[in-house]
Write a structure and sequence with these properties.
The chain is α/β, with parallel strands linked by helices and 307 residues long. It is 40% helix and 16% strand. The protein has one domain: Alpha/Beta hydrolase fold, catalytic domain (Rossmann fold). The protein has helices at residues 5-8, 55-59, 85-99, 114-125, 154-165, 171-176, 180-191, 200-210, 215-226, 229-239, 259-264, 283-286, 288-300, and strands at residues 13-19, 22-29, 38-41, 65-68, 107-112, 130-136, 247-252, 271-276.
Length: 307
């Protein structure tokens, strides 16, 4: 099992920036390092905390690293609206500017799950700010081909039931309120292989932020916005201008697998893929060493803008 969160986050520091009227919480480390900066974006239903075991490994390679709670995630504000990818992309752009992360055009961006949706949106909307893009364990709304019609089997249901459930109006909040810990515990267990990584400490933290006022609604609103007509069209418009920056697409063997790479080849011209063995959806916690190794190798072989 990986180190506990206290030891893994001992050299990390919390902060907040207000952009577009919303307070965004972030955690950073490696400030002053000479390597290229890395922006890390978590997914549903997690927070910056999902990156806690990956961050020290990136910092050890000389990178300043920032893990960002998007609006509605973690300890950021939970406004009632603004969860479409265009709005979130603008939030990220404003955050990057406020932190001075893209001054030299050498910013690396990585996202997992919903964080991958938004990392792609940001890289597509602001390509001059991003040197490389890494996406993990996601299907891009409006881009990834839909599953075949019909009644899916149990394995498919366990992987994708939440795409429909999360979009229902009000019902998810009604059913989950007061049961956040049981809901998250079941979700983590069903979508991971190495279930032991979701310790009591981890479940306490994820429950704390998910159960905050507006937390669950914000989490579900990401899906409602992404699969609305407007949300789908936003990505289809982006895909009309393929990304030309290097892209790394990572999937877990027992989850998305090579599907992440296949999706990104629909929207980018320079894509490489990696499938992590023996893990499920939550690759950041199930295999942080391999995620960090993949990221470090990918960044090392990408020339700097001045090279």
């Amino acid at each position: 099992m990986e180190r506990d969160a206290k030891s893994s986050s001992a050299d990390l520091h919390h902060g907040a920036v207000v952009v577009n009227g919303v307070k965004l919480h972030y955690v950073e480390g490696g400030e002053g390092s000479k390597g290229d900066p890395i922006l890390l974006i978590p997914g549903w239903p997690e927070s910056w905390y999902a990156w806690r075991f990956v961050m020290p490994r990136l910092i050890a390679e000389g990178h300043p690293v920032v893990a960002l709670d998007l609006r509605g995630m973690g300890d950021s504000d939970h406004p009632p609206e603004g969860y479409d990818s265009k709005t979130i992309s603008a939030d990220i752009h404003a955050f990057v500017a406020a932190k001075g992360l893209a001054k030299k055009g050498n910013l690396h961006v990585a996202g997992h799950d919903v964080g991958a949706w938004m990392a792609y949106a940001y890289a597509a909307d602001w390509p001059r700010e991003v040197r490389t893009l890494t996406v993990m364990e996601a299907a891009l709304p409006g881009i990834t081909p839909p599953a075949p019609a019909g009644i899916p089997g149990d394995d498919a249901n366990l992987k994708s039931w939440h795409f429909a459930f999360n979009r229902l109006p009000d019902l998810p909040e009604i059913l989950v309120q007061g049961h956040e810990r049981a809901y998250l515990g079941w979700l983590f267990a069903q979508k991971s292989v190495k279930r032991e990584v979701f310790t009591t400490e981890a479940l306490d933290e994820y429950t704390r932020v998910f159960a905050q006022p507006g937390g669950a609604r914000a989490a579900f609103n990401y899906y409602r916005a992404a699969f609305s007509d407007t949300g789908l069209q936003q990505n289809r418009l982006r895909a009309a201008t393929p990304l030309t920056i290097p892209v790394l697409a990572i999937g877990g063997q027992h989850s998305v697998g090579a599907g992440m790479e296949k999706t990104m080849r629909l929207v980018a011209t320079d894509v490489q893929g990696a499938t992590l063995p023996g893990v499920g959806h939550f690759v950041l916690e199930e295999s942080p060493g391999e995620v960090a190794a993949q990221l470090n190798a990918f960044m090392r072989k990408t020339p700097r803008p001045s090279d």
